[in-house]
């Protein structure tokens, strides 16, 4: 149901994961010896692992919107999406750090909007988890009253 607040947070989290296709992590001068900045832009298309992890996180949060009837499954799917996002974020940093020796000394990359979007995803996903847990506790307390 769209009128539930966690559905809005899940939609925003999914949107932030999928917007990584439009916004790069960083930009720098193109360097042929660099694996990340060979084209001058560090984005999802530079590594298949990044592409898979962030797409999985976005897809799972989007699917989680439609699991509103089963809150425990919705919570599990959202937690898996959070783990995929964190692993993707770690992989992003590892790939960038491993490419540092290949970059020229006078080149400093400028961070893009995409560098912050995984953190935005985490904020929205954790807020969605909070409200899903809140709904689950409310339903359990109502079941006790019956």
Short description:
This protein has 146 residues and is mainly alpha-helical. The chain has helices at residues 5-18, 48-65, 71-99, 117-145; strands at residues 26-27, 41-42, 110-111. Strands 2-1-3 form a three-stranded antiparallel beta sheet, with no helix packed on it.
Task: Name the average pLDDT.
Answer: 88
The helix/strand class is: mainly alpha
Instruction: Choose one word for the global shape.
Output: elongated
Q: List the domain count as a whole number.
A: 1
Strand content bin: under 5%
For the report, how would you describe the main beta sheet?
3 strands, antiparallel
How large is the count of helical segments?
4
Cα-atom Rg, whole angstroms? 18 Å
Total number of strands: 3
Oligomeric assembly = single chain
- The percent of residues in helical segments reads 55-70%
Low-pLDDT segments, ≥5 res:
none
Layout of strands and helices, then pairs:
Blueprint: H1 5-18, E1 26-27, E2 41-42, H2 48-65, H3 71-99, E3 110-111, H4 117-145
Helix pairs in contact: 1-2, 1-4, 2-3, 3-4
């Amino acid at each position: 149901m769209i009128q539930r607040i966690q559905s809005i947070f899940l939609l925003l989290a999914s949107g932030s994961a999928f917007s990584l296709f439009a916004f790069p992590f960083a930009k720098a001068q193109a360097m042929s010896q660099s694996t990340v900045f060979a084209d001058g832009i560090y984005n999802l298309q530079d590594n298949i692992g990044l592409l898979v992890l962030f797409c999985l996180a976005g897809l799972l949060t989007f699917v989680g919107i439609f699991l509103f009837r089963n809150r425990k499954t919705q919570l599990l799917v959202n937690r898996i999406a959070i783990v995929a996002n964190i692993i993707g974020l770690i992989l992003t940093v590892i790939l960038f750090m491993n490419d540092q020796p290949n970059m020229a000394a006078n080149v400093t990359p400028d961070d893009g909007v995409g560098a912050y979007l995984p953190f935005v995803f985490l904020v929205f996903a954790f807020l969605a988890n909070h409200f899903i847990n809140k709904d689950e506790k409310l339903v359990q307390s109502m079941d006790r009253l019956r």
